């Protein structure tokens, strides 16, 4: 069951000290909101998206996609379904390894709408990312077979069927909406 749990005096710092939950919980405007448990279509789209981005961007050190990465910024702690960071913004620790803590918005945030999830909640997380510097947001709706694309200071744009989706500059990836939803068919 998803929903918000109100803690009148809970701060972001207190939330971050709490143990992680499965599925992940988010901290939004002083409330803890648990994300829905991913199901088959959601998991497949998430994995294939990250794999597609990383296949063209990681080795060249252009960008990297992370599934369900906690991003804490702007008094929120959210867990996008996929978070893409351009290489220069990926935090690395002293050992040269990817850091555990990402205290910034992704450059590209992707949310995959689950059947029991509220659309406005998902959109609010995308808008929060854009308000704090994200360049691009996608909301993938498997039931409607559309992808809404969000960009800073622009109205959302609806993409369908064979329309080519926008990606981050420098990421050499050409995807149509049909390409994305064909990932659900799997391969034999």
Automatic annotation (TrEMBL):
- Molecular function per GO: endonuclease activity
Q: Supply the CDD domains for this chain.
A: DUF820-like
Q: What SUPFAM superfamilies does this protein map onto?
A: Restriction endonuclease-like (SSF52980)
The Putative restriction endonuclease domain, residue ranges: 12-177
Would you tell me the protein name for this molecule? Uma2 family endonuclease
Superkingdom, according to UniProt? Bacteria
Family matches, as InterPro entries = Nuclease_put_TT1808, Restrct_endonuc-II-like, Uma2
Organism, as annotated: Leptolyngbya sp. NK1-12
């Amino acid at each position: 069951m998803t929903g918000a749990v109100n803690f009148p005096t809970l701060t972001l710092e207190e939330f971050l000290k709490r143990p992680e939950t499965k599925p992940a919980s988010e901290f939004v405007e002083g409330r803890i909101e648990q994300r829905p448990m991913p199901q088959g279509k959601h998991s497949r789209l998430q994995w294939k998206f990250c794999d597609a981005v990383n296949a063209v961007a990681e080795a060249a050190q252009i960008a990297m996609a992370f599934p369900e990465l906690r991003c804490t910024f702007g008094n929120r702690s959210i867990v996008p379904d996929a978070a893409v960071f351009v290489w220069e913004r990926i935090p690395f620790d002293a050992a040269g390894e990817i850091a555990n803590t990402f205290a910034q918005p992704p450059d590209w945030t992707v949310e995959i709408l689950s059947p029991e999830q509220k659309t406005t909640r998902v959109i609010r997380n995308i808008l929060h990312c854009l308000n704090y510097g994200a360049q691009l947001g996608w909301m993938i709706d498997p039931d409607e077979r559309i992808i809404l694309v969000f960009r800073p200071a622009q109205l959302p744009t609806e993409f369908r069927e064979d329309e080519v989706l926008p990606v981050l500059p420098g990421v050499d990836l050409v995807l149509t909406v049909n390409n994305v939803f064909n990932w659900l068919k799997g391969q034999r």
